[in-house]
């Protein structure tokens, strides 16, 4: 796969995703805005396909685009399930992305069938135009075939500067793009060459066309990392029709860009008063395109994060060196380095964050298709789609959430008949809510279905030997049985779920990224799955502490207060409670809990109160070292069995500190 194939695949899939979401929205709300959005995405996709000579992809996209055009001009008003058909065509377009030359006979056969189907829709559009009265027919026909309308023509000045060596006749996609733009209308182009050889260093292109500035920019979308593009709108009419314009361009051939713009502006103003874009107001797009962003491979971001992590570790070592031999000048320098590294860390971290909305398209489509296949009507509600997560989490959580959604659809939501008998609306509801809570992100997936049947789960657990008849598990323990391998209470296997495969994998995948999943349910009212994951797996602000000879870190986000106590004031009674600020708070002593006894017990100790799950716990340590930027590392197999340890970090002197999972400590000690 060439870099251009990969470039088109990434951008093309993005445009297809936009089109799919727009069509799903149109199916729900029948607003023509969504058709316009899908049309623009398909138009961009089609342009990219033709740039890279992917004829089958471009032609099929053009056919879908024609149907969308018919819909937006109200020429397919009576066509049943049109959104369903369009989604089917998009699905086929996705398959063509993997087989653009139709080498697979099954895909080729499907392609032929769908082409016939779309042509039939196009015939209906043509018939609708013919049935219109003459005046309306003319207007519709002009809109449908996009005939040129002189009043909508603008004149643009484009500069295209390659950021790599591009030889004439090299077959680089830029030549196809320039040809396409010149075909849009009257034009004049002047290439500049490097050292009189065939390496192009710049193109100056003037074109009068109906395209918008955004349309022209979109032409270069797939090579935006290889050329620097500037688009200036110099008039909102066709300057090529004006006397002396082309002669002026010849005179300006070797004039600097800023001076060209001044001359062109003066020329246009001398012709007539019109909307003229001067150099201060013109939009400039380079590699960053109009949004000021660039496309960077995730591998490069991963390398950046690793380098930042190493810098954080090195900075910690530098800080320890300064503390052992104080020097005010050196200390100030180290503080500056620490501040800059912290800023660099924050920026690098933000680069890894993506909104959870990135997954929503996939989830909406899943809920729609599954509900149709099992004859259930479901309303899928989403809140918090702008909540951001590390890309690692986004990729890891996709499959677990999809599995939970399938279970909600198949086992949770009742049939319309059953819901009516219970006095519920015939249309069920599945909700997905994402939100921040401290150093964590919570994702809740809930339904308003039948809820979990506790007795059914217990009976199945007895049958599988997971519990004994004399056991009296709590409600939460019964729910946990669902995560056992092969566990399922479904009577029938469907295409959606019920095979007893998956919930154990769901839990494992979530725990692999230091997350957790919990279930709550109410019979007859529904079930809620709550997934909780930390904001990042890479670098955290932490509190570094010491117990005996060992160092530990706690996420600073959950540290509430710190107290100094006499060690002999700790009670050894059953309750293990401290009274701090007139409040009873449960505590754990790290020395006792982790069997640390290489050094004598200190006279004074520190109680660090952490807040998790709306509960408090005091963690007793010998000493608080101070705040620390911890680069999180995975731990060895031995520590993976220590339920209170979630990771490790390397200190400035090369020693290792364990990261305490305060959330699990709180959960166990407060139960």
From TrEMBL:
InterPro entries: Bact_Chemotaxis_CheA, CheA-like_dim, CheA-like_homodim_sf, CheW-like_dom_sf, CheW-lke_dom, HATPase_C_sf, HATPase_dom, His_kinase_dom
Modified residues annotated as Phosphohistidine in this record: 43
Keyword Phosphoprotein tagged: yes
Residue ranges constituting the HPt domain according to the UniProt record: 1-100
Enzymatic reactions: ATP + protein L-histidine = ADP + protein N-phospho-L-histidine
Transmembrane segments: none
Methyltransferase is among the record's keywords: no
Role noted for this protein: Involved in the transmission of sensory signals from the chemoreceptors to the flagellar motors. CheA is autophosphorylated; it can transfer its phosphate group to either CheB or CheY.
PANTHER family: CHEMOTAXIS PROTEIN CHEA, SENSOR HISTIDINE KINASE CHEA
Protein name (Swiss-Prot/TrEMBL): Chemotaxis protein CheA
Organism placement in taxonomy: Bacteria, Pseudomonadati, Bacteroidota, Cytophagia, Cytophagales
């Amino acid at each position: 796969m060439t870099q251009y194939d990969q470039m088109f695949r990434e951008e093309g899939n993005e445009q297809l995703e936009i089109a799919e979401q727009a069509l799903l929205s149109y199916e729900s709300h029948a607003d023509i805005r969504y058709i316009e959005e899908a049309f623009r995405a398909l138009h961009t996709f089609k342009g990219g396909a033709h740039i890279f000579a992917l004829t089958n992809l471009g032609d099929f996209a053009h056919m879908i685009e024609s149907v969308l055009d018919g819909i937006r001009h109200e020429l397919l008003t009576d066509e049943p399930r049109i959104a369903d058909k369009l989604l089917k065509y998009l699905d086929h377009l996705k398959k063509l992305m993997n087989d653009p030359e139709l080498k697979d006979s099954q895909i080729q056969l499907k392609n032929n069938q769908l082409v016939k189907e779309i042509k039939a829709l196009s015939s209906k559009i043509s018939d609708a135009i013919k049935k219109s009265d003459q005046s309306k027919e003319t207007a519709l026909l002009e809109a449908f075939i996009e005939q040129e309308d002189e009043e909508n023509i603008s004149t643009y000045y484009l500069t295209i500067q390659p950021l790599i060596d591009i030889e004439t006749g090299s077959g680089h996609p830029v030549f196809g793009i320039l040809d396409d733009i010149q075909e849009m209308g009257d034009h004049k182009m002047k290439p500049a060459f490097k050292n009189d050889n065939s390496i192009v260093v710049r193109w100056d292109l003037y074109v009068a066309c109906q395209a918008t500035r955004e349309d022209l920019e979109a032409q270069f979308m797939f090579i935006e990392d290889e050329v620097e593009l500037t688009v200036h709108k110099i008039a909102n009419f066709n300057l090529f029709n004006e006397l002396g314009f082309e002669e002026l361009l010849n005179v300006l051939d070797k004039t600097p860009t800023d001076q060209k713009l001044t001359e062109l502006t003066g020329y246009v103003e001398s012709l007539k008063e019109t909307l003229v874009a001067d150099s201060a107001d013109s939009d400039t797009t380079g590699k960053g395109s109009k949004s000021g962003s660039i496309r960077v491979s995730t591998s490069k971001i991963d390398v950046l994060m690793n380098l930042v992590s190493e810098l954080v570790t090195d900075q910690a070592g530098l800080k320890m060196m300064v503390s052992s031999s104080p020097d005010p000048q050196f200390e100030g320098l180290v503080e500056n380095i620490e501040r800059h590294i912290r800023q660099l860390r924050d920026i690098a971290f933000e680069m890894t964050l993506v909104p959870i909305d990135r997954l929503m398209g996939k989830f909406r489509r899943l809920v729609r298709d599954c509900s149709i296949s099992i004859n259930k009507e479901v309303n899928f509600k989403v809140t918090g789609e702008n909540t951001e997560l590390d890309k690692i989490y986004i990729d890891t959580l996709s499959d677990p959430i999809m599995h939970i959604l399938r279970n909600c659809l198949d086992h949770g939501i009742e049939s319309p008949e059953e819901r009516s008998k219970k006095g519920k609306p015939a249309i069920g509801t599945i909700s997905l809510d994402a939100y921040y809570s401290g150093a964590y992100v919570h994702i809740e997936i809930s339904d308003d279905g039948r809820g979990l049947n506790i007795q059914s789960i217990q009976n199945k657990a007895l049958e599988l030997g997971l519990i004994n008849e004399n056991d009296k598990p709590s409600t939460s323990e019964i729910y946990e049985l669902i995560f056992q391998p092969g566990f399922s209470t479904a009577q029938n296997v469907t295409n959606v779920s019920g095979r007893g495969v998956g919930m154990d994998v769901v839990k494992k995948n979530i725990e692999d990224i230091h997350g957790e999943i919990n279930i709550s349910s109410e019979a007859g009212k529904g079930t809620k799955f709550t997934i909780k994951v930390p904001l990042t797996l890479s670098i955290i602000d932490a509190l570094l502490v010491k117990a005996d000879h060992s160092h530990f870190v706690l996420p600073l986000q959950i540290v509430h207060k710190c107290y100094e106590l006499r060690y002999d004031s700790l009670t050894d009674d059953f309750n293990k409670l401290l009274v701090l600020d007139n409040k009873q708070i449960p505590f754990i002593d790290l020395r006792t809990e982790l069997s640390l006894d290489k050094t004598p017990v200190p006279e004074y100790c520190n109680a660090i109160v952490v807040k998790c799950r709306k509960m408090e716990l005091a963690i007793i340590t010998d000493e608080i070292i101070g705040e620390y930027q911890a680069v999180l590392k995975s731990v060895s197999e031995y520590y993976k069995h220590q339920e209170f340890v979630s990771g490790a970090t390397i200190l400035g002197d090369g020693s290792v500190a364990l990261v305490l999972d305060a959330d699990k400590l709180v959960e166990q000690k407060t139960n």
